[in-house]
TrEMBL record:
It comes from Kalanchoe fedtschenkoi (Lavender scallops). Keywords: DNA damage, DNA repair, Glycosidase, Hydrolase, Lyase, Multifunctional enzyme. Belongs to the type-1 OGG1 family. GO terms for cellular component: nucleus. This is DNA-(apurinic or apyrimidinic site) lyase. Residues 1-21 are annotated as: Disordered. It comes from the Eukaryota.
Length: 358
């Protein structure tokens, strides 16, 4: 298959899961698809109802920037070396099915997909637990069910969030697309080209100047420096990142902070979305707003310093426990403009707080 040219560099505008939270492994079976669709794509159903995985609340909401909407209720992306589409099947009550476009090993693709989707964690159990102690969470979960936390490849996740520093989703996506284009071409779905994320060795071949010319700005230095830092790790940078899955959260955060360009928020994102630290709390302006409104009202109106952000993160863990990061993820999504449209006005943070005070 001929590899197309890499995406244009013109970016600048012209602790271990608890037993009660484990679901049985999702069963795989062939989906019932209308004949005209089945002739084109072969879909396999996962035992993941929409309440366990909502594609629109999981992929375009800021935890990954490599998945594209390629059809009605359909998203396409790459898991390791597998090019995969996911979609909701309305004729099966919104259950999720997948289609494998490109893979070296179909059996391995299934395992990698289920791992990527964090399918061993049962959201309904978590949501029940969180809702019991938080009335607003219970109401939000009814509208935003299925907002799942992914288990991404650590290197891929780290590179994506290095691009996110003081950046918007559209520009982050373009930067991540540029980096992805350094990897092996896997194919096209819709109007999008998809690539296997580049190895550390391939990333090391990109110069800071090339990234700056591509519009990365100061983030170019972060990426180049972090790649060099990872290559210097004894035993290998990829292995070093993977080892942080077995560390305590504080140790993992401290280790990530040694990499240039990684601050507390980026470190927490990488820990939550790729390193199995389900109690990691990335505190951005949205999470700060929620935390100071509902968990630490005495901090509301103060500057968002590192110390105060740490207090907010601790408050989330105190409220929601070992899987606080999953609760934080839903509360963060509820603050995004597109997702706010799905909510009744009385659940918006400001109006809900006003209702409590009246």
């Amino acid at each position: 298959m001929k590899k197309p040219q890499r995406p244009s560099p013109a970016i600048r505008p012209p602790p271990t899961p608890q037993k009660h939270s484990i679901c049985r492994k999702p069963a795989l079976r062939k989906a019932f698809i209308p004949k005209n669709v089945a002739e084109v794509l072969n879909w396999t159903t996962l035992n993941l109802p929409r309440s366990e995985l909502s594609l629109s609340l999981t992929f375009p909401t800021g935890q990954t920037f490599r998945w594209r909407k390629t059809g009605e209720q359909q998203y396409t992306g790459v898991v390791r070396s597998h090019l995969i589409s996911l979609k909701h099947l309305e004729q099966e009550d919104g259950r999720v099915a997948y289609c494998l476009h490109s893979s070296r090993n179909a059996d391995e693709a299934e395992r990698d997909l289920l791992d990527f989707l964090n399918s061993g964690i049962c959201m309904s159990n978590l949501w029940t637990e969180f809702s019991a102690s938080d009335e607003r969470f219970a109401e939000l979960a009814w509208h935003l069910g299925g907002a799942r936390v992914l288990r991404q490849d650590p290197l891929e996740c780290l590179m994506q969030f290095l691009c996110s520093s003081n950046n918007g989703i559209v520009r982050i996506t373009r930067m991540v697309e540029y980096l992805s284009g350094l990897g092996n071409y896997l194919g096209n779905v819709g109007n999008f080209s998809f690539y296997e994320f580049p190895t550390l060795e391939l990333l090391s071949q990109v110069s800071e100047k090339e990234l700056r010319d591509a519009g990365f700005g100061y983030r170019a230095n972060y990426i180049v420096s972090t790649v060099k830092g990872l290559q210097s790790k004894s035993g290998g940078g990829v292995e070093w990142l993977a080892s942080l899955r077995k560390s305590q959260l504080k140790d993992a955060i401290d280790a990530l902070l040694t990499l240039k360009g990684v601050g507390p928020k980026v470190a927490a994102c990488v820990a939550l979305f790729s390193l199995d630290h389900h109690d990691a709390i990335p505190v951005d302006t949205h999470v700060w707003k929620v935390g100071t409104t509902f968990l630490l009202p005495e901090v509301a109106g103060t500057n968002q310093t590192l110390k105060q952000s740490s207090r907010v993160a601790e408050a989330f863990v105190s409220k929601y426990g070992n899987y606080a990061g999953w609760a934080q993820n839903l509360l963060f999504i509820a603050e995004l403009p597109a997702q706010k449209l799905l909510l009744p006005a009385n659940l918006h943070t400001a109006k809900y707080k006003k209702g409590l005070l009246e």
